[in-house]
Amino acid sequence: MAREQCIDPRDTVRSGYDTIADEYLARVSGSRSGDGVRTQVEALVAELTSRLPEGGDALDLGCGAGVPFTQLLSRHFRVTGVDFSSRQLELARQNVSGAKFLHADMTKLELPSDSFDVVTAFFSMIHVPRDGHEQLMLNIASWLRPGGLFLASFGKRGAAEYWEEDWLGAPMFWSYHDPGHAQELAENAGLKVDRAWVETIEEGIDGPETFFWLLASK
Length: 218
Ligand SMILES: C[S@@+](CC[C@H](N)C(=O)[O-])C[C@H]1O[C@@H](n2cnc3c(N)ncnc32)[C@H](O)[C@@H]1O
Prior knowledge:
- The protein is α/β, with parallel strands linked by helices.
- It has a single domain (about 5-45, about 55-215), classed as Vaccinia Virus protein VP39 (Rossmann fold), CATH 3.40.50.
- It is about 35% helix and about 35% strand.
- The strands form two sheets. A seven-stranded mixed β-sheet has the order 3-2-1-4-5-9-8, sandwiched between helices. Strands 6-7 form a two-stranded antiparallel ribbon.
- The radius of gyration is 16 Å and the shape is globular.
- It starts with a helix and ends with a strand.
- Bound molecules: S-adenosylmethionine (SAM).
- S-adenosylmethionine binds near residues 10 and 88.
């Protein structure tokens, strides 16, 4: 039987990140060059902080080990980080003081409406099975306050879900939409797309990487 017929992809992602959390952290925090993932996200967080009130509420979906992105957010916002990998969350709690963390599946989160000024999903919605994206986008739109911002990376490849036998040392599941469809999901959820772009960085987690980015407002 094919893997996708017998294993919930979320179990693969959760246990995959439990296994590779330390390796992932070494790669993401080691990327310091001008063309690395860290520089890319630093610029995006600067854009968020320039548009939002200091001390606002931020929700970081799939926060991983919290370094450097949740930590960057926590310099400006009151951050709630969410991740369903125990090891990632254990690292995040060690790495980011002052943030609140929820050990939860982002697709099952229940949060009050109008409670966040910004919701981010850095390289995490690319692991959520596609049939969960529509409801997740509706939830994100409801959690945002009017004027709030949503920033996330999606796959640039055509619509596809696929498994990799060994990614950084564990099996992994990926879930991509066509960029146009990701944009449509945000718009259907009532968000206004402020900027949508494809960007390649030379020093991603696993070599050169291209993602579709979406910055939308409520
Ligand atoms: C590629 S890592 C990104 C971590 C961090 N945002 C960063 O950019 O360094 C993806 C993270 O999303 C988490 N994740 C994936 N699907 C999730 C889900 N449904 N609920 C909660 N966390 C999830 C994984 O456990 C992992 O820590």
